[in-house]
Amino acid sequence: MTGLLAGLDGGKLLRHVLGAVLITFLMTSLIVGLELVATQTGLSLRPRYHIVLYCVVVVALGSAAVFALVERSWRLPMLVGVVLAALLLVPLLTGNLDSDLAFLLPFPVAPLNWLALFLPAFILMRAGQLAYASARPPAAAARRRELSRTGKLISMGLGLLLILAAFAFPVSPWGSRQLVDILTIVLIYIMLGWGLNIVVGLAGLLDLGYVAFYAVGAYSYALLSEYFGWSFWVCLPLAGLFAASFGIVLGFPVLRLRGDYLAIVTLGFGEIIRVVLINWYEFTGGPDGIGGIPRPSFFGLPFQANAPKGGGETFASFFGLSFDPYHRIAFLYYVILVLALFTNWFTIRIRKLPIGRAWEALREDEIACRALGLNPTNVKLAAFGIGAMFAGFAGSFFAARQGFISPESFVFIESAVILSIVVLGGLGSQLGIVFSAAILIGLPEFFRELEDYRMLAFGLVMVLIMIWKPTGLVSHRDPTIRLHPRGDGR
Amino acid sequence: MLVIEGIHAFYGRIEALKGVSLEVKQGEIVTLIGANGAGKSTLLMTICGQPRGQGGRIVLEGTDITAMSTHQIMRRGIAQSPEGRRVFPRMTVYENLQMGAINVDPAHFEGDIQRCFELFPILERRRGQRAGTLSGGEQQMLAIARAMMARPRLLLLDEPSLGLAPLIVRQIFSVIRELNQQGVTVLLVEQNAFHALKLAHRAYVLVNGQITMTGTGRQLLADPEVRRAYLEGGH
Ligand SMILES: Nc1ncnc2c1ncn2[C@@H]1O[C@H](COP(=O)(O)OP(=O)(O)OP(=O)(O)O)[C@@H](O)[C@H]1O
Ligand SMILES: [Mg+2]
């Protein structure tokens, strides 16, 4: 046993695991640890200790394993020991959990269920570890470089895996209507997160009114289809274009401002758009919104039970399938998946181009950029416009999916949520945004039954992540905005 | 090449330059020396339009650039290695050099970066490292190399020897001479007056925002007042 423990920093391990356990405890006790039950006197909350305990154990083991991996002071047998312990302990605990956690644990056998929880926890912890390691001061430069290289490999592999899984999901046995629907929403936010990331993460411009461009996109499609009867596929690029023009028009006066001022003005702009939408009753339908927005078709084939009036085929009849509303839901899912992946691909590409480099440099030192002959206003305008364009795409998809939009959907809290996704993901990290969107959007959707309590939990989780991982969940590059000052970067 | 006539510059109400006139001719190395706070850095920055020069004129290759904005000026064949280096700390050495070449025809990039790596071999070994983690001297070399990547005809160097070991200082000065022989005109601000004056074709002394003396490098080196103020024991 002592051989196994040689070189192990016990105190560090303890601190590491305890930290993870504490956060898990707080998170789970608020998110899943309470159950809303109807009693004779009204609603009350019933604690579910066993679920909390379960999550704590899983995370404790996972974080210990990560510690073993990262510190490399543990030998392989120790790792095996941890895994074995997990194998023994967790199924023991899962015994009477299955009914409560059925929505999370889709597998028929306990070990698979355990893997389904343990692996994500493990990966998250590892991601956190990497973020932590890459946030160390320059003294650890050499090691950090090495870590961030493995980190890059890991996130690339993980990204590919996620993409494959995302494509396979709706046709897999787990692809239920409800789940695909939730994932569609998560994907909208992932796309919004990726779009905003161009503005905030890459160009370092704090935009608190991003939802305005989302609204412009949504209303572009809704109005164009209402007034001209244009289809989704025609309106999609137009919506992006409109949103981008709004971004540029807004950007001209605003981008001369810096930091706080920019944030406040963009926030104001977001509200102005919403107020205009509410008050311009004849054109936008005001607070009543716009309904009956047509759904996107599959190359002209609509997803309907019966053939359209003028004759022609539906998606189901064309492919000789019987009509199933699931087809439409899955199709919408694929549309947003492709849109989101396009956003991601675009961002990754543009980062390597001069304009992407210029954004990054601008974020670091505006005066030095100017001294290199860059016109900061133009460079920022490009970021603003491109970011707005993706919000426009997402907005028109949103309108098409909902079939109904109203100004209600574009309130400030939406901007705040999107920004949180970007910040929690680790500014500038594409994969981090996927995780944080899944956490911030996916989890609350799952736990809708908890109603307002989930907002409490949401706030707490955000605060905790900020304390715990000030650089975000995944970060290879240092972010612009840092909550804890550390040694002078220069 | 560069003609400055009676230029003033202000930081709020502080007048940092009080009517400075100076000329840099094509192919020269001109050195500017002066005590701390004399306004040397301010003069270099004013040439780049930040702060904007007032009351006089700055003419670059026959064009009046006094009223132009910084990014326009910097596209006219000027590059500056600013005081305090100002490299992009979280970008790699390579990316910093890419930023230097951002307004240059990409066809030149490979050749230019090879030349930088020849001048400063250490940078090639550090190409993937973040600039913020370089040593001070390495950052200084990077700042000069980044300025070179812009293919300037006029290079403004603000204290390139600051914080460098004597051996590296000599190396930097020989690089400057080499660049100059390749046709780059140099305006050099230095505290290391002895080296800088030896290198210079001509030199100016700046005191409290005004030029008090000018001559060839050799003349100023021999001048008793200059020797007392800037060479022997300093200030
Ligand atoms: N941004 C600023 N705001 C206000 N005053 C400034 C600013 N920059 C410089 N000054 C003032 O202008 C004067 C000239 O400064 P400058 O930096 O040009 O000196 P310098 O000759 O480069 O000195 P050194 O040799 O120490 O670098 C100083 O009195 C300084 O305090
Ligand atoms: Mg200075």
| Total E-strand runs of chain B | 10
How many domains comprise the coordinates of chain B? 2
In what range is the share of β-strand residues of chain B? 25-35%
CATH fold topology of the largest domain in chain A:
ABC transporter involved in vitamin B12 uptake, BtuC
Q: Architecture of the largest domain in chain A, CATH level 2? A: Orthogonal Bundle
* SSE succession of chain B: EEEHEEHEHHHHEHEHEEHH
CATH class of the largest domain in chain B: Alpha Beta
Helix coverage percent of residues of chain B? 25-40%
Give the chain pair forming the largest contact, with residue counts: A-B, 24 and 29 residues
Q: What is the name of the CATH superfamily of the largest domain in chain B?
A: P-loop containing nucleotide triphosphate hydrolases
How many alpha or pi helices of chain B? 10
Question: CA-to-CA gap between the ends of chain A?
Answer: 45 Å
Average pLDDT over all residues of chain B: 90
Which spans of chain A have pLDDT < 50 for at least 5 consecutive residues? 1-6, 131-147, 475-490
Mean pLDDT of chain A: 74
Task: Report the CATH architecture of the largest domain in chain B.
Answer: 3-Layer(aba) Sandwich
In the sheet with the most strands of chain A, the strands line up as: 1-2
Give the helices and strands, then pairings.
The complex is a heterodimer of chains A (490) and B (235).
Chain A: H1 2-5, H2 10-31, E1 34-39, E2 42-47, H3 49-71, H4 76-94, H5 110-134, H6 141-168, H7 177-202, H8 211-228, H9 232-254, H10 259-279, H11 281-284, H12 315-318, H13 325-352, H14 354-364, H15 366-371, H16 376-402, H17 412-425, H18 430-446, H19 453-468
Antiparallel strand pairs in A: 1-2
Helix pairs in contact in A: 2-3, 2-19, 3-4, 3-5, 5-6, 7-13, 7-16, 7-17, 7-18, 8-9, 8-10, 8-16, 9-16, 13-14, 13-16, 14-16, 17-18
Chain B: E1 2-11, E2 14-24, E3 29-34, H1 40-47, E4 57-60, E5 63-64, H2 70-73, E6 78-81, H3 93-100, H4 109-119, H5 121-125, H6 136-149, E7 154-158, H7 166-181, E8 185-189, H8 193-199, E9 202-207, E10 210-216, H9 217-222, H10 224-231
Parallel strand pairs in B: 3-8, 3-9, 6-7, 7-8
Antiparallel strand pairs in B: 1-2, 1-4, 4-5, 9-10
The structure holds adenosine-5'-triphosphate and magnesium ion (MG).
